[in-house]
TrEMBL record:
Its EC number is 4.1.1.48. One of its GO terms (molecular function) is indole-3-glycerol-phosphate synthase activity. This is Indole-3-glycerol phosphate synthase. InterPro entries: Aldolase_TIM, Indole-3-glycerol_P_synth, Indole-3-glycerol_P_synth_dom, Indole-3-GlycerolPSynthase_CS, RibuloseP-bd_barrel. Keywords: Amino-acid biosynthesis, Aromatic amino acid biosynthesis, Decarboxylase, Lyase, Tryptophan biosynthesis. It comes from Paradesertivirga mongoliensis. The gene is trpC. It comes from the Bacteria. It catalyses: 1-(2-carboxyphenylamino)-1-deoxy-D-ribulose 5-phosphate + H(+) = (1S,2R)-1-C-(indol-3-yl)glycerol 3-phosphate + CO2 + H2O. Belongs to the TrpC family. NCBIfam families: PRK00278.2-4 (NF001377).
Length: 268
């Protein structure tokens, strides 16, 4: 990163997140998470639901806002939207819990948990094991580890912690270099983020370039920038099992209905 000029959005998010984690640690000790009923529930398996022939492979995201788009939809509730996604055949749900940059809340994930019986990804910038234990305590089934912000050692350690808690682990990469340095045993899925988190540019080509480099023992997920049902067919053809979609549904007044229409067109 020697040529980097100025702080990227990702740098800003990480900096803010570290402060947030320090404050949270001071406020709520880990022992409190371990007292939660949700901490002791058995998680739904990402692998099982993504590969289920009765589901679509879509991981549908509840995203109120993003740094690139600003507010996407602030008129809907996490319970309604995620239930609509599940009805439309989602294999899993993704719920942003970052509030500063994505307008998310832990309460959104709690609501989604209450309303659904499919796996839920805690969409968060994980930098500390504290957040993984918290994820379990708020009812998540899956955590995200973003290669761009973690060392290979942290990824291996966090993935192992998650595994021991019964959580599934999705590793997110953006290029070959990240993929090769970050892959480890305790992952369940590798996601190719088509969006560059440093400058927001989106290209599905990232997915096509990386799919055959992902070891076959992991689920292969294509993330971000998917807005055409035909793309799902192409990505499946290329070898992807899962598809993470947020904005294309969230920008509609009724995201669940939007997903139903989208799903109907995949094989039309
Ligand atoms: O809204 P989109 O373009 O369909 O993208 C969804 C999801 O992939 C995106 O929100 C995302 C992928 N990786 C992330 C990491 C952090 C925050 C957000 C993300």
């Amino acid at each position: 990163m020697a040529e980097k000029t100025g702080a990227t959005i990702l740098d800003k998010i990480v900096k803010h997140k570290l402060t947030e984690i320090a404050e949270a640690r001071a406020r709520v000790p880990i022992s409190r998470f371990e007292e939660e009923d949700l901490f002791h529930r058995e998680c739904y398996s990402l692998r099982e639901f993504v590969l289920s022939p009765e589901k679509t492979g879509i991981i549908a995201e509840f995203k109120r806002a993003s740094p690139s788009k600003g507010i996407i939809n602030d008129q809907v509730s996490a319970a309604n939207v995620t239930q609509g996604y599940a009805d439309a055949g989602a294999s899993a749900l993704s719920v942003l819990t970052d509030s500063q940059f994505f307008g998310g809340r832990i309460n959104d994930l709690l609501q989604a948990r209450e309303a659904n019986t499919i796996p839920i990804l805690r969409k968060e910038f994980i930098l500390d094991e504290y957040q993984i234990i918290e994820a379990k305590a708020i009812g998540a089934d899956i955590i995200l580890l973003i290669a761009a912000i973690l060392t290979p050692e942290s990824i291996a350690k966090f993935a192992n912690t998650a595994k021991n808690l019964g959580l599934s682990v999705l590793l997110e990469v953006h290029n070959q270099e990240e993929l090769e340095r970050s892959v480890c045993d305790d992952l369940d899925a590798v996601g190719v983020n088509n969006r560059n988190l440093a400058d927001f540019s989106v290209s599905l080509q990232h997915s096509y370039d990386l799919v055959n480099l992902i070891p076959d023992n992991f689920l292969k997920i294509s993330e971000s920038g998917i807005s055409d049902p035909k793309t799902i067919r192409d990505l499946k053809q290329a070898g992807f099992n899962g598809f993470l979609i947020g904005e294309n549904f969230m920008r509609e007044a009724n995201p669940g209905e939007a997903m139903k229409d989208f799903v109907a067109q995949i094989n039309a």
